[in-house]
Amino acid sequence: MPKRERTPKPRQEQAPQATRDYEAKVAQEIEGTSRRSARPDLPYPSGDPLSGIVLVAEPAPTTAGSARLADALGRSLAAVGLEAAYVTWSSSDPLKEELLSLEPAILVVVGPGAARAVDDAGYALVKTRFGEATEGTWFSWTRGTTGLLLPDLAPALDDPEAKRRFWRAFLALRDLALDGALRA
Predict the structure, then answer these.
(1) Which letter does DSSP use for residue 93 in this model?
(2) Which helix (H) or strand (E) holds 64?
(3) First-to-last CA distance in the chain?
(4) How sure is the predictor about 91, in pLDDT bands with cuts at 50, 70 and 90?
């Protein structure tokens, strides 16, 4: 009996399935990581884990304060057109696992405590640590990830000068929305 040759599918037909498989894998990993890191004093991570943009924020000392920070971050992201960006907390136990699963193109760290947490996670192949970065300036965190360090958001909620400082640095994100950095 002659051997039947398998007809390969054209690349364009394979790509959408591969994309869907990858998205399902990432969604499953992130859901598991989010469940393991869930704490009653922190809002659940929000946004689209496949957006390519991840914000790691420093939580407030109280549950109400963290909820207020999450709301402020959500409103700020909406103001610059990046409401789909994924937001998580620096006190997440599996932060390194979360970052490995997400493989973000853009990693934004909010506050010095969050910067220490990301640096202490021990992510391999880091070119520039967040602790060495200049606030509000883009830098190469790893070969495939651009980083941005923002000031702590908590003081900006009540102090006008801290709010201006935070917002000036945060506006660097506006260009991402204009460039269409988020996946549709």
Answers:
(1) T
(2) helix 63-79
(3) 49
(4) confident
Domain that holds residue 67: 11-179
**What distance in Å separates the CA atoms of residue 31 and residue 25, rounded to the nearest whole number?**
10
- Tokens of residue 111, six digits: 């506050």
Going by their DSSP bridges, the two strands 106-110 and 146-150 should be labelled as parallel
Element (H, E) at 28: helix 11-37
Residues in the chain: 184
pTM for this structure? 0.77
Give residue-wise pLDDT tens across range 95-143: 888 888 888 999 999 999 999 999 999 888 899 999 999 999 999 999 9
Sequence letter at residue 35: R
**Tokens representing residue 150 in the block:** 């923002």
Q: How far is CA 83 from CA 102, 134, 143, 178, in A?
A: 17, 25, 25, 13
Domain of residue 125, CATH code: 3.40.470.10
